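User: I'm putting together a small comparison set for a docking exercise, and I want a reference complex before I start. The sequence is below, and the ligand is fe (iii) ion. Could you produce the 3D structure with the ligand included, as structure tokens?
Assistant: Of course. I'll restate your input first, then give the structure tokens for the complex.
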Amino acid sequence: SVPWFPRKMSDLDSFAEKVLEMGEDLSKHQFFMSRYILHMSHLVLTAHFHSSIPGSDHPGAQDPAYRARRSEITNIAKTYRSGHPIPDIAYTPSEIATWGAVFRRLTLMFPTAACREHHYIFPLLVQNCGYREDNIPQLQQVSNFLKDCTGFTLRPVMGLLTSRDFLNGFAFRVFHSTQYIRHHSKPLYTPEPDVCHELLGHVPLFADPDFADFSQEIGLASLGATDEDLEKLATIYWFTVEFGLCREGDKVKAYGAGLLSSFGELEYALSDAPEKRPFDPSKAALQKYPVTEYQPVSVAGGGIVAVVYFIAESFKDAKDKVRDFAASLKRPFSVRYNAYTQTIEVL
Ligand code: H2B
Ligand code: FE
């Protein structure tokens, strides 16, 4: 039988509460467990969201004020309904200072490390969405901007979704974004996605038409996919949207959000240390990523990085390749997104 999948935009409302909450015991969490086991089966604990066990090493787990603030903010996501504006958050001076520390460090690296699409879009985010060291951009404003560029929109989310729910959102050109920020004690480290990762890492690329198409292609393939195929798509997502590199003439640049929001790994990925292969979805889908290298603790907080990265020729090329790959997966139907009605047509 085909796994359930969302057919209309408002079906995404049902994802709201299926998330891992910060500091909760991992083993109690079926949703997160599947992700964890996925990565264990790839013999890796991913650097980007958790260095060992989320919760146990979360810098905010033992801070009651942080936890209270988190629930205040995640409550917006919990009660959010499709089509409604995302409420703005009045971020505190301490939260803004945390953002500022990340913003300062990352924007120093972008000029040499980020891909040309990122260079083109980032100044537009500064002009239109309040991207500044002393201001945390508001999700609604960013969502409006993305909608004008590519039709992508943001939805607030309480935390990590299952791979299936998260990828299904892409079919609708929806990116699920957290709205809270990491703990102030470690501004350059987070074991899970937060606004810094979403807004500085992910958002710029969703304003690029080819990248938007590429992302939606993964999303469409994920609708009703078997668990086995879903795992492949999640792995492709991991090696592209999170950790992707791309070719620019004789240079290699970063476009993956996990790289563009992590100082240590960005530098590492662009160095000669890791292996780099041309992007091929059927290979990336099965790629294991073994634990070998550790980030310097002072830089990334002690994560574990992938040792192989995939280099895309262009987002258009990557999109065509993912489309061909998706067509090779067996699914007893095909799907199309109708942007006028915001529904999935099953053919
Ligand atoms: N959920 C959220 N909220 N943000 C993410 O970046 C994310 C997720 N990534 N769920 C997903 C899982 C990714 O690691 C893949 C698809 O498994
Ligand atoms: Fe991410």
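Confidence is low (pLDDT under 50) at residues 23-54, 290-302. The chain has 14 helices and ten strands.
User: Thanks, that's exactly what I needed.
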